[in-house]
TrEMBL record:
Protein name listed in UniProt: Fe2OG dioxygenase domain-containing protein
Keyword set, alphabetical order: Iron, Metal-binding, Oxidoreductase
Entry similarity comment: Belongs to the iron/ascorbate-dependent oxidoreductase family.
KW Iron (keyword) present: yes
Upper classification of the organism: Eukaryota, Viridiplantae, Streptophyta, Embryophyta, Tracheophyta
A Pfam short name: 2OG-FeII_Oxy
Domain Fe2OG dioxygenase: 210-310
């Protein structure tokens, strides 16, 4: 009880400083604060023997981002469908997004987090009615331990921010990259629709690609990376997540009860199936649990996840298992729920526990 109160006070003081984890790292600390120390069971999993390095998440070639050839498309649909069913995560290469655009996006996110602290403070908030905000750990006050990262969030669709809403350091590239992500997301939703045996536009017509949230994660150098996590185990509250990561690494996916490293592949993007897509596919597709290991590299790790999600935005639309997928042998496994209810449940507690069970029939 006393320790819990101490952590609560520590978190409150930390949050009110509005300087984030980067502020701690810049202060020259040699030991991480107690609020960042992960529970023993989690630390034990970090020390467990790594899975065979021969195991790799699937990689799918998108043929330049169009996949128009009938035979090629059938092959890509099969690969994506199998990856979505067995892994819930895969990498895409040859996706049509120029490497230069990816690099500029990474530079913009790094530039935001590494700019003068006073310039950043004006964006520090936990109010998700804002189009753009930055903070440390969405579950800071509900988690057993904080993770070693800072986060920038920008809601880019369906109501994109104005140019003046965005920080100058990433003003141009944010919206350019958002458009590239929308094009890629719509293509992947088409391929996933076909993998489900549906019309290519089925998931798009369900508005799965309508809401987009761009995120810039910043993982500073950690003085004790063996005592904390960059991001705890979780699955995404999204239909789909498209991740751009730098070359430092640290991303791991849970597969067959083993943590599998997802080493950076130049130019590739990592795609996660989200909880909402698992729900509407009636468990045909798997929402992959994943985490990020803290690091002691001399340079901060940066990643840019793009979530196709109505995260924390009120939305009365109701979703449940897709009717065309149901039959006597495949009855619905989840009840119909509004996006507002789904969002409230998924963001109400620590993000390391699955929420889909709450909606099981």
């Amino acid at each position: 009880m006393e320790s819990s109160r101490d952590h609560s006070t520590e978190k409150k003081v930390f949050d009110e400083a509005k300087t984030g984890v980067k502020g701690l790292a810049d202060s020259g600390i040699t030991e991480i604060p107690a609020m960042f120390r992960a529970p023993p069971a989690i630390l034990a999993s970090l020390k467990a023997a790594p899975a065979s390095q021969q195991v790799r998440i699937p990689t799918v070639d998108l043929k330049g981002g169009s996949v128009q050839c009938k035979n090629q498309r059938r092959n890509v649909v099969e690969q994506i469908g199998e990856a979505a069913e067995k892994w819930g995560v895969f990498q895409v290469i040859n996706h049509g997004i120029p490497l230069k655009v990816q690099e500029r996006m990474m530079e913009g996110i790094r530039g935001f987090h590494e700019q003068d602290t006073q310039l950043k403070k004006q964006f520090y908030s936990r109010d998700h009615t804002r189009n753009l905000l930055y903070y440390t750990n969405i579950d800071l006050f509900s988690s057993s331990a904080a993770s070693w990262r800072d986060t920038l969030i920008c809601y880019t669709a369906p109501d994109p921010p104005t140019s003046q809403d965005l920080p100058p350091v990433l003003r141009e590239i944010m919206m350019e990259y958002s458009k590239e992500m929308m094009n890629l997301g719509e293509l992947v939703f088409e391929l996933l629709s076909e993998a489900l045996g549906l019309n290519p536009n089925h998931l798009k017509e369900m508005d799965c690609a309508k809401c987009q949230m761009m995120t810039g994660q910043y993982y500073p150098t950690c003085p004790q990376p063996d005592l904390t996590l960059g991001l705890g185990k979780h699955s995404d509250f999204s239909f789909l997540t498209v991740l751009l990561q730098d070359n430092i690494g640290g991303l791991q996916v849970l597969h067959d009860q083993a943590w599998i490293d997802v080493p950076p592949l130049p130019g590739a993007l990592v795609i996660n199936i989200g909880d909402l897509l698992q729900l509407i596919s009636n468990d045909k597709f798997l929402s992959a649990e994943h985490r990020v290991i803290a690091h002691g590299s001399s340079k901060a790790r940066v990643s840019v996840p793009c979530f196709f999600t109505p995260f924390k935005k009120a939305n009365p639309r109701v979703y449940g298992p897709i009717k065309e997928l149901l039959s006597q042998h495949n009855p619905p496994k989840y009840r119909d729920s509004s996006l507002t209810e789904l969002s409230e449940i998924f963001t109400s507690k620590e993000i390391t526990t699955s929420r889909l069970l709450h909606f099981k029939i």
